[in-house]
Specification:
Length: about 425
């Protein structure tokens, strides 16, 4: 009997038949296991904040909140999502280099634990809005450190960038430059890189960030109520990569965090985690609509691609590397052929997998992109060619829940407006005059 991919005993064919394709499937049990392993291994002094940018679905956030996760948000919609998921205001931090007045106001009304400030201009804005609200805003300063991370797939510190205030600028600034009547400085935030797969690098970054926070708080004359050490914990996607060894990682972190906590017993230590929790829990499921051979190479044309999973397609990368792909309805058949798995879009970039080893592919087969629970549709151009957002389904405790319905044509057109003049073809006065 051919093995079929299943989540908690529910076969993918049945799920695809019920909810249609393309769709994202999430396994609640994997989310629970990832959380439990991380929480059990980390030092007790570390608070884990789920980064909603990885997967902002309300149900995913609510499940993780129920396990004990705090929330790190970067937009007004993410803030409201965290609130609706039940995250207490004191367990929410808001960051991002381009905050609007509306976002700052929403943070002040909600009473979040901290607004993470990324520039002196933003510090002025927070101060102004806090005074207008008759309150004092708790603020962490995001610091762009003088050191750069090694072993990160995407470096976000230690070089010129839009994130944070340069460490050198803060050290050259007297404490008076930071003081604002509407701001209470509470600590330091530093995020130096993402998708890190080296335990030693994570530990070294953490140690350097904690030392930096200590030094800058003394220089700036403010207490260390909070230190956010970022995170950047990666997961393996490509050939030659390996997942982080959690035992090794937590063994390295424990003495570093323990020493700092002993010297700062009242300081909250924050770790941001997104991809590490959500990534392995998701699979992007597509159905093969056509197969063909072109110039001697096999193509399987599926019903989803770049528009739903830009990361897997590899847009913006110099070399296309395949995410793990599988023929979900025939998992145990030998991968005897090479196939290009392409989506429905009118662009040659719409390639989910290039020369992927698969069994012979047939129309109707289900091709899945594994480890797709993070940075899927929310990080993709879902409106490209007006296909819209795919369905999202969470399987938890043996039951499947539709947690986001598929966009309909009406959904896509509802926000658009067509003038009666345009519909009637009435010339605009300026156009009419120009023609004469």
């Amino acid at each position: 009997m051919t093995a079929e991919f299943a989540i908690q005993g529910l076969p993918v064919g049945r799920l695809a038949g019920t909810f249609g394709t393309p769709l994202y499937l999430y396994d609640g049990e994997i989310l629970r296991r990832r959380w439990a392993g991380l929480r059990a291994g980390l030092p007790p002094a570390m608070e884990v904040f789920y980064s909603l940018k990885a997967n902002p679905n309300l149900s995913i956030c609510a499940l993780l909140r129920g396990l004990g996760a705090r929330a790190e948000v970067s937009s007004l919609a993410e803030l409201v999502t965290a609130q609706r998921a039940g995250v207490p205001a004191g367990h929410i931090v808001f960051l991002g280099p381009g905050k609007t007045v509306d976002e700052v106001d929403a943070c002040l009304r909600a009473g979040v634990a901290a607004i993470v400030c990324e520039s002196f201009g933003e510090l002025d804005l927070i101060d102004e809005r806090a005074r207008a609200h008759g309150t004092v805003a708790p603020v962490m300063l995001r610091v762009n450190p003088g050191f750069a991370v090694k072993g990160s797939a995407l470096t976000m510190g230690g070089r010129p960038g839009q994130f944070g205030i340069d460490e050198a600028h803060l050290l050259a600034t007297g404490p008076g430059r930071l003081r604002r009547p509407g701001v209470r400085l509470t600590g330091i935030h530093t995020y130096v890189g993402t998708r890190i797969l080296n335990e030693q690098v994570v530990a070294e970054n953490t140690a350097r960030i904690l030392e930096l926070a200590d030094r800058l708080s003394r220089h700036g004359g403010f207490p260390l109520e909070m230190v956010d050490v970022g995170g950047g914990l990666g997961i393996a996607y490509f050939d030659g990569e390996r997942d982080l060894d959690l035992d090794l990682l937590t063994g390295l972190l424990t003495p570093i965090v323990g020493d700092f906590a002993a010297r700062h017993p009242r300081t909250r230590i924050l770790l941001e985690v997104g991809r590490y929790l959500a990534g392995p829990a998701g699979v992007y499921v597509t159905r093969v609509n056509y197969t063909k051979t072109s110039h001697g190479e096999n193509f399987a044309i599926v019903d989803g691609g770049t528009n739903h999973h830009m990361a897997a397609v590899g847009v913006g990368t110099l070399v296309k590397r395949n995410y793990p792909l599988a023929l979900l309805n025939r998992m145990d058949e030998p991968r005897t052929e090479r196939w290009h798995v392409t989506g429905p879009l009118c662009t040659p970039n719409d390639t989910l997998g290039k020369a992927v080893g698969l069994p012979p592919v047939r129309v109707g087969d289900l091709v899945g992109v594994l480890r797709s629970g993070a940075y899927g549709p929310s990080a993709s151009p879902v409106l490209f060619l007006s296909h819209g957002h795919p369905a999202e389904v969470l399987v938890d405790r043996g039951r499947a829940y539709l947690i986001r319905r598929r966009d309909t044509v009406d959904d896509l057109l509802r926000a658009q407006h067509l003038s009666d003049d345009l519909m009637a073809g009435t010339p605009h006065p300026m156009t009419e005059g120009a023609a004469r």
